[in-house]
Amino acid sequence: MNAAKDISVSRDAVADPEVRTANTRADSLPPADPAEKQSLARQPAATRAAGRSTPHESARAQVAGAATYVDDIPELRGTLHAAPILSTVAHGRLLGVDTTAAMALPGVRDVILARDIPGDPVLGNFSHDEPVFARDTVQHIGQVIGVVVADTVMQARRAARKVVCRIEPLPALLKVQDALKAESYVLPPVFVKRGDATAALKKAAHRLHGTLEVGGQEHFYLEGQVAYVVPQEQQQWLVYSSTQHPGEIQHWVSHALGIANHAVRVECRRMGGGFGGKETQSGQMAVWAAIAAHKLHCPVKLRLDRDDDFMVTGKRHPFAYEYDVGFDDSGRLTGLKLSMAVNCGFSADLSGPVADRAVFHADNAYFLEDVEIASYRCKTNTQSNTAFRGFGGPQGMIVIEAIMGDIARSLGLDALDVRRRNLYGIGERDVTHYQMKVEDNILEPLLAKLEQSSHYRQRREAIATWNARSEVIKRGLALTPVKFGISFTATLFNQAGALVHVYTDGSVQVNHGGTEMGQGLNTKVAQIVADELGVPLAQVLATASDTSKIPNASATAASAGTDLNARAAQYAARNVRDNLAQFVAGLDRCGAGAVQFEAGEVLTPAGARPFTEVVKLAYANRIQLWSDGFYRTPKIHYDKATLTGRPFYYFAYGAACTEVAIDTLTGESRVLKVDILHDVGTSINPAIDIGQIEGGFIQGMGWLTTEQLVWNDKGLLATHAPSTYKIPATGDVPEHFKVDFWPEPNREDNVFGSKAVGEPPLMLAISVYEALRDAVAFARPGRAVVLEAPATPEHVLRALTPS
Amino acid sequence: MAVPLFSRPIRFVRRGEVVSVSNVPPSRTLLELLREDLACTGTKEGCGEGDCGACTVVLGEASGGRVQYRAINSCIRLAHSIDGMALWTVEDIAQEGSLHPAQQAMVNEHGSQCGFCTPGFVMSLFGMYQNHVCKGEPITRELAQEELSGNLCRCTGYRPILDAAQAMAALPPMKVDETALLHKLRSVRSEPGVSQAEYLAPRTLAGLLQARAAHPEAQLVAGCTDVGLWVTKMHKEFTQVLDLTQAEELRRVEPYPHHIAIGAAVTLADAYAALVKDRPQLHNFAARFAGLPVRNSGTLGGNVANGSPIGDSMPLLIALNANVVLMSVRGHREMPLERLYTGYRTNVMAADEVLAWIKVPRPQPRETMKVYKISKRYDDDISAVCLAIHLQIDNNTVVKASLGAGGVAATPVRAVKTEAALVGQPWTQATVRHAMAALRAEFSPISDMRASAAYRSEVLGNLLQRYWLESQGLQQINLASFRLEEAA
Known about the structure:
The complex is a heterodimer of chains A (803) and B (488).
Chain A: H1 8-15, H2 17-27, H3 34-42, H4 59-63, E1 80-86, E2 92-98, H5 100-103, E3 108-112, E4 137-138, E5 144-150, H6 153-160, E6 164-169, H7 176-181, E7 185-194, H8 197-202, E8 206-214, E9 226-232, E10 236-241, H9 246-257, E11 264-268, H10 282-296, E12 300-303, H11 306-312, E13 319-327, E14 333-345, H12 351-360, E15 371-379, H13 393-411, H14 415-422, H15 443-453, H16 456-469, E16 473-486, E17 495-502, E18 508-512, H17 521-533, E19 540-542, E20 545-546, H18 561-588, E21 596-598, E22 601-604, E23 607-610, H19 611-620, E24 626-632, E25 637-639, E26 644-646, E27 650-663, E28 669-678, H20 686-704, E29 736-741, H21 766-779, H22 793-800
Parallel strand pairs in A: 1-12, 10-11, 14-15, 18-19, 28-29
Antiparallel strand pairs in A: 1-5, 2-4, 2-6, 3-5, 7-15, 8-13, 9-10, 9-12, 11-20, 13-14, 16-27, 17-18, 17-24, 21-22, 22-23, 25-26, 27-28
Chain B: E1 10-14, E2 17-21, H1 30-37, E3 56-63, E4 66-73, E5 86-88, H2 101-108, H3 118-131, H4 141-147, H5 159-167, H6 178-188, E6 199-200, H7 205-214, E7 219-221, H8 227-232, E8 241-243, E9 253-255, E10 259-263, H9 268-278, H10 283-287, H11 292-297, H12 300-306, H13 313-319, E11 323-328, E12 331-336, E13 341-343, E14 346-347, E15 354-361, E16 367-374, E17 385-394, E18 397-406, E19 413-414, H14 416-422, H15 429-442, H16 453-471
Parallel strand pairs in B: 6-8, 7-8
Antiparallel strand pairs in B: 1-2, 3-4, 3-5, 9-10, 10-15, 11-12, 11-15, 13-14, 16-17, 17-18, 18-19
Helix pairs in contact in B: 2-3, 2-5, 14-15, 15-16
């Protein structure tokens, strides 16, 4: 059977010959006369760009090797290459750096150390707790002490290993439990309470205690971290960076160079993957290259070798949990005490908001009445952990899902029944533990629909029967929900700007503060702008993110890229359109509201004109053909001190039903079957949204199965390349991998009625983990299942071993 | 860097033209040649160790009047090694403004998101197009999964890429002009390099052995899928390289009545194809050995000579009672494969010796042979434990037992004590239990990032139990071949 048949939504939109024809027609519409206009107006959908599975705007270039990434930019004459000098000790006093041997190698120009930083030697990030280069102490293996600059990359890398750092070792904290015991924190603990958890637990009919450990995750963006810094005239700087946040790069570089923000321009056409790993972590590359370029007065490129990338940059935060949960006979939660120890690494970076989001999502889809959550932001001597798709959300959800599974097993109930009994209600049981009312709840009907379409009940029975006969292999099944809050929890970041330029030939350029990392943001923005101006999609070009075009833009993160930037671009296009409408209304003596923009035409009750002609006329009449647009998310507010308010504009929902098999002799496992029902509102681009759902799921599956980060007892990350760190490969994707959309627009006013889709699907993969625990339970009936994540063969076998 | 006098240009065919590049140091990789020397940046570096496939390009060689196409990792391939071949990168396959079906299918199926892995996938697809579609062979989902397992994508979750692989054949065809190409390949296949050259690639076995004797200090390489990492990750620079892959005699698999002889220049892909031909049950294991671009470049001889304790070929070959033939200008000697090794990555080979042949016995009647690989990821991963079990059972008695194990000692090893515990015993669960204990006791594996010592020991024994259960006719007990029986 061809898996393609299972993917109903994207298939229909792409393969439908009518849609194809319509697309072609939209691209080559002849100038319409007034008589034809009527028929067009009756079928607006056929001429619209949004709502269609158009290919990614760069797809044709990408498949031909013609899409430019930072390392592909032709190098200017005199460009030098930098490579980092890494600490080989997890914690120690840095007594001295001997560069003699490195400097003696061919091609080496200089060794750049902390003393060469013209501005602040501490990075200009939010927490201001991370040195640009290690100075007096080193805090993890892989911390960067300086960079070697040479004529070629390999010369620089070779020489970097010849730099001798004298380091006097100090005791290192490598395990989060040890940091917790030592009260070693990067930020103070946070406690969120509602009701009286202690009292509720005391009177609970049933109680369970448990612990859980969930590992981190390396982003493994295929394009490693890279920056290319080019000095400009008069102490100005051009920085090409593979980054989700050009504005932050600009800020950090100017901070380190001791100059004003306006002297630094940062450009990013695209990233070869980001996933949160280039939200802050790309900044160091740019700063290091800039310091070298500043000292040596020439362009400097810094492209990390993959192994160095693993050693230097932060990852998803590993968590360790302890929980004490009370529940009634039906499995409904009556009280919960939960402690999360967050392994932040050596500095705060984004750990505060990541840990906050874990607290916000410890409910996932469930109403927690009497609850007490403690969140400890532990400091360890490892890489500084950072944003990663889900941003603490996955780490919040997995523990409550594990608790649901535990409750079901302890009561002998079906886990889906227990989950449904605990869902948020409508009109009751609908306020989160952070005091936000859940207004757009579709959880019950969504789970019911997936339960049916995935044949959950029949399969549960079939699996139980099958397992009873199968000695070695055990199958497991789980259906788990996702409710993910959309917006930056820091309200101020929920703003965006865009520029729409219409040139005199009618072609349109759109630029916004978001960045393209493969998620299709530029494609969606162009679709929205095309429709706003009523022009074919091919007429709209999205260009590189650039701090000189849109200033102060937020990171492309929190799944909010399209919500924010497509809306800002829509507003910018609307301004241009309003200018044109007013102008045409004057010509045709009608109200501006009567002017329509459709299929490359500008329509008034008097007739139709090609858009291109209107643009020429408007230009000749000195009408402004470009505009900015600005958007800020409404309704949200949030008190940082109490962690209460409405941090999220809305929730994105979804659910996945996953079947797995485990081998009780070896602990190996396979994902056999996946059914997903996910809520993207009205999709701007179904193919792109399907891509986010499938890709997010597989990435989440990797986090919970094969992707194991192993640090040795010295604090050395032993899994620092794809040879040892295993992200999912083609063979890990089940043939039955079905994705459906929830058929309802966003209930909040959001661009095109869509919902954010970047992060939420990753958490659908918690169903993989729960299905694995289900399979383990079949092998060991009547016993608690303790399965450390990721569920490697070794961890599964350990869970199967009597203890 | 000083340029030696006798350095010879690298010559290869690209876009129908002969490309000649001079003064290329012997350690330079093909990817460096492309991106830095030729400014062709369409091919990407994702990892620099042949594990992600972003750097995949396709090589063509004349073979039996046809062109043989191989997708390989350019990041760990030495540039000089493609001398005399044809090269395609992602920038070379579109024709007259039309995308190649491998490219168009990726666009149609939404197979690219960030696009950084895409050039590598496209080239693996191009290889599949040439090797399957152009020969009228269908690309099934299983084949696509197998042949694309050496290409990693972090965005899509692979489904659209697998769809693209299956969709290529339905698109308007695009052909390579093989007649013209073969003509060009003949013209570019120049004379062997002079002996003072930095990169020696003798065309004959005799030439190879002479070169080995004359330049014992030269770095001997075959497919370079491990030595390539010494360059990219350990930053080694070789003053002289001796490449054995062009020695004509060693590029063959020779069938004999009682064994096959696999030349040291035979790629892993071709060597495993030969092994699978004799023992079809090895197909799955063969497909899980690295990814296709590595199997297309690396050689079985290289895997064996390299002697990594976690190399997957050796446990299998030990269990199959394979011999190796070492050759030098002084003569040759033959020995059981496990005797090659003296310690962690050390062996008995003299400075002038080359591992020339691996001799693998043909299947015996009533032999049962299984090989099990345990790794974190199913495909393209290195074994935590590998166990190959080769028994001959007559009248329910174990007559012969041959077991090879990987990941349990400093070298690939034969489980001698376990064999002794099995031979002559009745084939029963009790015997197996006894042998499992013997097997666990026989080795003291280490703990590392792949698995703990305890896990390795535990599983080693359990794999013998799996073999026992399979011998008793139990189906569906190995996830490697597990098929979900769909409810009607």
